[in-house]
Amino acid sequence: MLSQFSREGDHPTLADLDFDFPKDVYPVGRLDADSEGLLLLTNDNFFKTRLLDPKQRHFRTYYVQVEGEITDQACAQLAAGVNISINGKKHQTLPARAVRMEEPHLPERNPPIRFRKNILTSWLSLSLHEGKNRQVRRMTAAVGYPTLRLVRWSIDDWELGSMQPGEVREVKGQG
C-alpha cells in the first residue's frame, strides 16, 4: 500500500482503507511500496513536524529480514554507521541500534518474499533516527546482507503490536 491518499497506477493507497479519515490527515513519514508496518497519520501539524525533525532524534525501529545469516560484525558496522549512496552522493549514516533477533511473529506478507530453499535468511532489529530514501535497504546491502522483508515496528513509543495489515487504530490527544 502506498503511503498516500492519491491514486498512482493500480497500487492500493490509504484511501482504500475502511476508515473515514478527515480531509486534513496526512502520513508522518512514508513507507515505500515494498515495505510494511506502522504508519502514523495525523492532522496535528505540530506533532507531525516534531516527529519528522531530524534534530529531535525520534527512533524508528524496523524488523528486517535479510538474505544470509547476519553476523555480529555486520550488526556492529550498522550500529557504527555505514556509507551509502543517496542520489549519487555518498552519505555516512548516523549511529544506529542493530541487533540480531529471532524471527518475529508477523502476519504473512502479500505478496510473499522470494524464497530460496538453499539460502538462509535471518532477522535483525534496526533502530535509526534519520530517514533517507530506502536507507535501511541500502544499509543492509552495504554490509553484504540484502533486505528481503522490511517492517517498521515502531516510531518512538508507538508500536505496531498486534495490528494487522490495513487495520486503523484511532488515538486522540497523543501529540
TrEMBL record:
Keywords: Isomerase. Its EC number is 5.4.99.-. The keyword Isomerase applies. SUPFAM superfamilies: Pseudouridine synthase. InterPro entries: PsdUridine_s_RsuA/RluB/E/F_cat (IPR042092), PsdUridine_synth_cat_dom_sf (IPR020103), PsdUridine_synth_RsuA/RluA (IPR006145), PsdUridine_synth_RsuA/RluB/E/F (IPR000748), PsdUridine_synth_RsuA/RluB_CS (IPR018496), RsuA_PseudoU_synthase (IPR050343), TruA/RsuA/RluB/E/F_N (IPR020094). The keyword Isomerase applies. One of its GO terms (molecular function) is catalytic activity, acting on RNA. GO terms for biological process: pseudouridine synthesis; rRNA processing. It is an enzyme of class 5 (isomerase). Residues 20-142 form the Pseudouridine synthase RsuA/RluA-like domain. Gene3D superfamilies: Alpha-L RNA-binding motif, Pseudouridine synthase I, catalytic domain, N-terminal subdomain. Belongs to the pseudouridine synthase RsuA family. This is Pseudouridine synthase. It comes from Salmonirosea aquatica.
